């Protein structure tokens, strides 16, 4: 397991090589996902109703029952402890953490939603315990059995990220969720644009993989991904593989501090980058934004104080997008 996680971490690490090398256009196909449980339950209920109104012998009704609900590992109203199975270094300041749970249960995370983590601080003078609480979006498939993966950038002054850095395999983390963000459904828009900065790539990856693994989802995806330097690009190898094998995914990278051989974008995301790299304003267009507060303010305006979407401003407003065409994570 440790070897597998290290391989996943290497796939997430960013090389300094030219990010726009020649790419093939071969389209990969994926197996059709199993029928969701909710659909199975609905079918079961429908068959029960049919039997009730058509069977001459109603005594058999008691033998017909709906499929029992699958137990979920997450609970939105209760903090659950998950054990750290392993961790691996992704970049100079980012680690990949794998937490385990009962593989006979389902995690309970939808696309795109996040979970909330916490850890206790030392009791105050009155003996009360306060907690550091932070939301994170797993980068693992929501349907993964028995584990979920978190990609955590460790900041020198970040209380929660420093707590993650101190964790060792076997330690536990308190988690609650899911917290629903954008509820993605296949083909909800013809073209989805994405602007991500740093670890803001995590909800984007959740949606990207949901689209690409579904052969019936024809959504086009255009991602602009900004970072400080080429070394800071998270999940680059994985993103490049996805782009090479899926013609409906296009990615543009930009960095503040490019290396001598860097051939991608340079500097902050500009109006010109957004104009060239995103689908234009349209009823069939949705632009997703996730990243550091300064970037989000520059691109779309910040969320409101009550964490609702708030007013649309910034580059996207200037380019003609409306509030219903933009979603801020």
From TrEMBL:
Chief place where the protein resides: mitochondrion
Alphabetized UniProt keyword annotations: FAD, Flavoprotein, Mitochondrion, NAD, Oxidoreductase
Binding residue positions for FAD: 134-136, 151, 153, 159-161, 202
Pfam families: FAD_binding_6, NAD_binding_1
Compartments, record wording: Mitochondrion
EC number(s) on file: 1.6.2.2
PROSITE patterns xref list: FAD_FR
Keyword check for Glycoprotein: no
One Gene Ontology cellular component annotation held by this UniProt entry: mitochondrion
InterPro entries registered for this protein in UniProt: CBR-like, Cbr1-like_FAD-bd_dom, FAD-bd_FR_type, Flavoprot_Pyr_Nucl_cyt_Rdtase, FNR_nucleotide-bd, OxRdtase_FAD/NAD-bd, Riboflavin_synthase-like_b-brl
Reaction catalysed by this enzyme: 2 Fe(III)-[cytochrome b5] + NADH = 2 Fe(II)-[cytochrome b5] + NAD(+) + H(+)
Family per record: Belongs to the flavoprotein pyridine nucleotide cytochrome reductase family.
Protein name in the entry: NADH-cytochrome b5 reductase
